[in-house]
């Protein structure tokens, strides 16, 4: 105790004196079954590394008393000292870097900070799954390193958030990879593979958790709160919009956890939904891992949703549906009574605990000292490394989207920018870099700092009291703008407008931002440069058409190196290549009830639909929009070898008539796994950088159907590839096309079919027709 107190005191003193945090007060990580432990010497099966994790878990569970078992069912699980099992914290967060929003990660000793990557929506804008993989790997290494030095009481991480960004007002849309199910699926796969580590080893670097299954995308709108919202979701939308990222997460990436949402889907809370948790996630998708509840989701089944009449009913229905652990203490409190009342059995609890302990086994927590395993060498020196810091910078640079660049005002030549006015509430606010679910970043380069590294004479004025901008210093801002060579405005949103628990009611810039921007633009010598820091989209129609606003950038919430990334883009040390991962809707969209979950438009009632796949109204910017300093061209090239899709394979299949619409189609299930393999073919896209700058470019390939009847999307992204090209360089990019995956559509009844007849591969305006013939 005394040693710990002294260490804490030293750390505090170091902090007070601003000294570098070099104190080596690393602790020991918690573990079981060390060579000198009684459990190992007695040869207890749960310590036997040669047995399968589930077998070891079952052995451990069989040794627990009923009371000990019940105590393990909350995110803060006490130790079982008589078996050498330390306490465990299941709840840890690492959305875009290690975060302190959970319970188990601490930055208070040898390690004081971790790498803060951009908020996910900006990272998604890079359309680059290699980048997403490397970010996952870096976060996984930092988590394991933090554990090894004794500053993590758990390695189960409740990230990523792969819900579809369905409505632009959603406060947590910023945490997601955007509105498209294919992008969200590939993000999920890359991030989970990265963070969970070497997939050929049975040892998990960390355990990832895909959340929140499913159809969760509303915080609090017009008096409807996420805790009691009953989402009406069609089978079609579930199958082709809300569920695909979760399926990919479990099936392809082998995520070891899925979190169920608060959402009551068609009346049944997700965490009480046996069809979803046991039928789909564990059954159809084959989850090898555990199911966690969103925090207090079990309690709200009784308190807010009135789904379960008593606490014991809520506990019983969840555990029986397939939940394994409650985030909260509700199950710990009420499980004993549920058993007494005959609503729950000890076998139900054993099932949950076996799933839970099997993951802890796979994390190596029962193999003796974890510093001896394949991740054991990771330590304090593996956190905030130069590589990770550079990756945070790279991710921000690659995500930034150039929305407007009139007359090529950007990039700027630093030798001509002798003085600059930097105006805006987001110019010098470290919190705007790290958004939500953050920990202490290794460094914090705000946009103001970033610009100061390029321009000597910089004058800064926040201009607004905060991003809310209910008070603006317009006169001062106008005076400053008129006196400097160049004017940079850093505007947008903050967590006060969009966050967990808070949706927006307007898509316009908050408060007096718009009038401030316009006044500053009027007063400045040259067209101004507007940089938006925000998660969700904003309606900036006024700025699109204002000739005094020369350039607009969307920079998301760009992470610890965000300010430098922005400056590099502005001054041409990086050629922007980000593309919007969400549709930017106009303010008129806010007439649509946020509670209307339907993706498909309903012209009879004037409902416009959602996302580029279905939305029929006006946009401010379209999904996939983004400019470059170079001109790129893309085309589908001949030589794309389309196999005989009228092959004997399909001829042999009985085509299925769809009674409601008369369309002729094949069921994907009927084609079968092997048939689907045989149908695959490559499509080639030639992409050229016509200059003048080197740069990355992301090619997006879509599929278009001949019509949009029966809920067919207008188009659907089926692939994307990001490629760096020197000025003048050409490359051929290969897209592997799987008709079962990419040409299929989901019918109203939730079944996947491939239509007989024409389909069109699309890259820009280039199309290639592919026909399926019986
Ligand atoms: C991954 O794990 C396998 C099996 O344990 C091991 O042979 C291999 O060397 C590991 N790869 C890396 C890159 O650590």
TrEMBL record:
Signal as UniProt keyword: yes
| Location of the protein in the cell | Secreted
The GO biological-process annotations, alphabetized, read as: xylan catabolic process
Question: Does the entry feature the keyword Phosphoprotein, yes or no?
Answer: no
Q: Which SMART domains match?
A: Fn3_like
Q: Which UniProt keywords apply?
A: Glycoprotein, Glycosidase, Hydrolase, Secreted, Signal
Domain Fibronectin type III-like, by residue range, is: 697-767
Name the InterPro entries for this protein: BXL, Fn3-like, GH, Glyco_hydro_3_C, Glyco_hydro_3_C_sf, Glyco_hydro_3_N, Glyco_hydro_3_N_sf, Ig-like_fold
Provide an example Pfam family for this protein.
Answer: Glyco_hydro_3
Which SUPFAM superfamilies does this chain map to? Answer: (Trans)glycosidases (SSF51445), Beta-D-glucan exohydrolase, C-terminal domain (SSF52279)
UniProt-recorded Gene Ontology molecular function terms:
xylan 1,4-beta-xylosidase activity
Q: Where is the signal peptide?
A: 1-24
Question: GO cellular-component terms in the record?
Answer: extracellular region
The name on file for this protein is Putative O-Glycosyl hydrolase superfamily protein
Record organism = Zea mays (Maize)
């Amino acid at each position: 105790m005394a040693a710990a107190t002294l260490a804490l005191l030293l750390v505090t003193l170091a902090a007070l004196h601003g000294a570098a945090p070099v104190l080596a007060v690393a602790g020991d990580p918690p573990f079981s079954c060390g060579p000198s432990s009684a459990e190992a010497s007695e040869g207890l099966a749960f310590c036997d590394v040669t047995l399968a994790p589930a077998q070891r878990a079952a052995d451990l569970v069989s040794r627990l008393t009923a009371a000990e078992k019940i105590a393990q069912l909350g995110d803060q699980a006490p130790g079982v000292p008589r078996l050498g099992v330390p306490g465990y914290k299941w709840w840890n967060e690492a959305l875009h870097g290690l975060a302190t929003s959970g319970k188990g990660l601490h930055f208070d000793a040898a390690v004081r900070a971790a790498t803060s990557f951009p908020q996910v929506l900006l990272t998604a804008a890079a359309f680059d799954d290699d980048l997403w993989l490397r970010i996952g790997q870096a976060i996984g290494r930092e988590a394991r390193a933090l554990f090894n030095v004794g500053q993590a009481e758990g390695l189960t991480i409740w990230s990523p958030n792969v819900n579809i960004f369905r409505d632009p007002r959603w406060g947590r849309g910023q945490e997601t990879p955007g509105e498209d199910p294919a992008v969200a699926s590939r993000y999920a796969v890359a991030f989970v593979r990265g963070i969970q580590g070497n997939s050929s080893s049975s040892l998990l670097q960390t355990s990832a958790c895909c959340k929140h299954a499913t159809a969760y995308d509303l915080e609090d709108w017009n008096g409807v709160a996420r805790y009691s919202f009953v989402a009406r979701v069609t089978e079609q939308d579930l199958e082709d919009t809300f569920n695909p990222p979760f399926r990919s997460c479990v099936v392809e990436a082998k995520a070891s956890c899925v979190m169920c949402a608060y959402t009551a889907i068609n009346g049944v809370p997700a965490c009480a939904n046996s069809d979803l948790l046991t039928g789909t996630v564990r059954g159809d998708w084959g989850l090898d891992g555990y199911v966690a509840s969103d925090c207090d989701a079990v309690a709200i089944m009784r308190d807010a949703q009135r789904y379960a009449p008593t606490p014991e009913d809520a506990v019983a229905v969840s555990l029986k549906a397939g939940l394994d652990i409650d985030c909260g203490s509700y199950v710990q409190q009420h499980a004993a009574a549920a058993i007494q009342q005959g609503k729950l059995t000890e076998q139900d609890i054993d099932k949950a605990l076996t799933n839970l302990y099997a993951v802890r086994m796979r994390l190596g927590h029962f193999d003796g000292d974890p510093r001896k395993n394949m991740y054991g060498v990771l330590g304090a020196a593996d956190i905030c490394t130069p590589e990770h810091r550079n990756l945070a910078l790279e991710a921000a640079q690659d995500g930034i989207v150039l929305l407007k660049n009139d007359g090529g005002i950007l990039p700027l030549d630093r030798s001509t920018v002798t003085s600059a006015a930097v105006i805006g509430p987001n110019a010098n606010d470290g919190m705007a870099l790290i958004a939500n679910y953050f920990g202490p970043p290794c460094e914090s380069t705000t946009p103001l700092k970033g610009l100061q590294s390029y321009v000597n004479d910089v004058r800064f004025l926040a201009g607004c009291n905060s991003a809310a901008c209910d008070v603006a210093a317009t006169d001062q801002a106008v005076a400053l703008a008129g006196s400097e060579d160049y004017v940079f405005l850093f505007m947008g949103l903050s967590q006060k407008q969009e966050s967990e628990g808070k949706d927006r009611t307007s898509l316009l810039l908050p408060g007096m931002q718009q009038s401030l921007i316009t006044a500053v633009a009027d007063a400045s010598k040259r067209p101004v440069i507007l940089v938006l820091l925000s998660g969700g989209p904003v309606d900036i129609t006024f700025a699109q058409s204002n000739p005094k606003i020369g350039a607009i950038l969307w920079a998301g919430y760009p992470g610890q190196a965000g300010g430098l990334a922005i400056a590099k883009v502005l001054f041409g040390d990086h050629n922007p290549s980000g593309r919007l991962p969400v549709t930017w809707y106009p303010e008129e969209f806010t007439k649509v009830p946020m509670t209307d979950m339907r993706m498909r438009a309903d012209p009879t009632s004037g409902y416009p639909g959602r996302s580029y796949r279905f939305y029929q109204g006006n946009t401010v910017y379209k999904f996939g929009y983004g400019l470059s300093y170079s001109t790129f061209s893309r085309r589908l090239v001949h030589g794309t070898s389309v196999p005989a899709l009228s092959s004997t394979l399909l001829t042999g299949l009985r085509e299925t008539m769809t009674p409601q619409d008369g369309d002729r189609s094949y069921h994907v299930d009927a084609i079968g796994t092997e048939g689907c393999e045989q149908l695959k073919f490559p499509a080639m896209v030639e992409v050229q950088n016509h200059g003048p700058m080197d740069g990355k470019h992301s090619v997006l390939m879509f599929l278009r159907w001949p019509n949009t009847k029966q809920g067919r999307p207008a188009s659907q992204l089926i692939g994307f590839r990001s490629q760096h090209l020197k000025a003048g360089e050409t490359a051929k990019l290969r897209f592997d096309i799987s008709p079962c995956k990419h040409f299929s559509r989901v019918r109203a009844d939730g079944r996947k079919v491939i239509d007989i007849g024409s389909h069109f591969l699309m890259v820009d305006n280039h199309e290639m027709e592919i026909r399926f013939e019986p």
